[in-house]
């Protein structure tokens, strides 16, 4: 688990998009973000207070989070200076970069000497068990997508936020690096060894109060041949009581697979629900989440009305409409 | 890839069952087994010539294969003496034990000094790609089971054997440690990192002659919540043209999951086939393989007749009946 709150390191991000991990933290867990650290030439700005390491430390920050993609896949000399200083001043470091912090000999040496932690959230820090399939107490929701990157994480974070605003018991359960950095905890499922995938999801979503919801971050898609095994493990390890179907209507083909068409929402429902019922016979599909970012307001509304009619399920874009209707459906279960 | 042929190390196996990996090698690839090496007190006997290391070397053996389960999960001092001698005499070592050869400092040191290879077939030796989903030439068969350990490997080995006897082009593609030791090559799928599972199966079953069959070893089951993700990756990475359904009729519940009932063969067919068609729209279910080891001859025959009638597919126990009717169905495609 990563110590919060954070100082968000934006480095020399060329633009706002390069800082999207930091943006996610600020949007979804503002209490975790004490301030931002920008280097000369930084093209990103989260609108947080710019802080030196000293100032952030005084403000209570525990971890410097690399909230930016690095250029060329290497941790630059300029970054290193800041990261080493941060360790020396008592910060832990956390990163989701491919280029691991722990693989940098200088960072590893300083971390060891100062007793600070290096969190590479792409790498599992736990030895997960093999799944045992036992029914657990508490309720669980999982978003499943027609494709990868259709808004499953956004949907889960939005549902969690609404639930907590309503005073419901809810925990967002991160299964990818961005989600883990946002919340400080989770399972980097795509990096878990095959035999332990479903077990890692059981570990992530243990027994809980009967009225508590685990809102599990989805990964991949049952219809995406590169990652469908990861999705399958989430469905069986997560034992969801409720599925939400996620879709992006303007996509011409499956992400990265030009020869593969997207399935219909009906096909997704009819494939995912019977599989989910293997682990949880009471599982229901309760709503639909559409990512309409590439549609006009009119197009989006008319598309969602059509889906709602066809599937008979509350259908929203959580970004445009909020997640209230999805939470209504979950609360009614 | 493991150098063949082998000297099969049976050690101090308490009984025949403890040597089942060696038995599999002898049964399915007799040409790979030059002889057996037994220690005092060994309770297993494959009926092969007992050989010293010297004699096996002279007979052409390249690798000493640990074909026995070790007691207590440790590689004993007595075993070590033989393994070290084997390295010194120029053998590579291969093993599927949990306790890795490479984790034993003395074995690692001698292997390094002598330039010999230690093959721990539980550990991937290759950096696999992420699956790209591109259609590959050649034909592929995959056995999918209602549960784990219902005879999928046996079925695949039997189909491969019949195909080769008939002069068809066929390659058994191992995806588990026993299969890898039998053939000397394959992917230890349960040990591959999640993101690369389907890619490792693509790597294992590349483009081939149009009339060549890859007979892919199945793993897990779509209905086994601990391992279903592995099965899913096999179905999508393998792009099978043909599925064979495998089942063990006397099992009271899913292996290791007392609260989970086995699905029907119909449920397996109706779940696996649409998923397989995501990657290969021409996929067909062509036959059924029943493991009748716990049934009398009469029970077995009457059960299989019933299945054949219900599903309209050739139904055999490859152990009792041979795999000819399955190969007939595959050859007719």
Describe the structure.
Two copies of one chain form a homodimer. The first copy, chain A, is α/β, with parallel strands linked by helices and 333 residues long. Helix content of chain A is 36%, strand content 17%. Chain A has helices at 20-28, 53-58, 77-88, 105-114, 152-165, 177-183, 197-204, 228-238, 265-279, 297-311, 318-321, 324-331, and strands at 6-11, 33-38, 63-66, 92-95, 118-120, 139-145, 169-173, 212-216, 242-247, 284-290, 315-316. A six-stranded parallel sheet of chain A has the order 7-8-6-9-10-11, sandwiched between helices. In chain A, strand 9 (242-247), helix 9 and strand 10 (284-290) form a beta-alpha-beta unit. In chain A, helix 3 (77-88) packs parallel to helix 4 (105-114) and helix 7 (197-204) packs across helix 8.
Oligomer: homodimer
Proportion of residues in β-strands of chain A: 15-25%
Main β-sheet description of chain A: 6 strands, parallel
Total number of strands of chain A: 11
Q: Kindly report how far apart the N and C termini of chain A lie.
A: 32 Å
* Percent helix range of chain A: 25-40%
Question: Can you describe this structure in just a few lines?
Answer:
The first copy, chain A, is an alpha/beta fold and 333 residues long. Helices cover 36% and strands 17% of the residues of chain A. Chain A has twelve helices and eleven strands.
Which key phrases capture this entry?
36% helix; alpha/beta; homodimer; 333 residues
What topology emerges from the helices and strands here?
2 copies of one chain form a homodimer.
Chain A: E1 6-11, H1 20-28, E2 33-38, H2 53-58, E3 63-66, H3 77-88, E4 92-95, H4 105-114, E5 118-120, E6 139-145, H5 152-165, E7 169-173, H6 177-183, H7 197-204, E8 212-216, H8 228-238, E9 242-247, H9 265-279, E10 284-290, H10 297-311, E11 315-316, H11 318-321, H12 324-331
Parallel strand pairs in A: 1-2, 1-3, 3-4, 4-5, 6-8, 6-9, 7-8, 9-10, 10-11
Helix pairs in contact in A: 1-6, 3-4, 7-8, 8-9
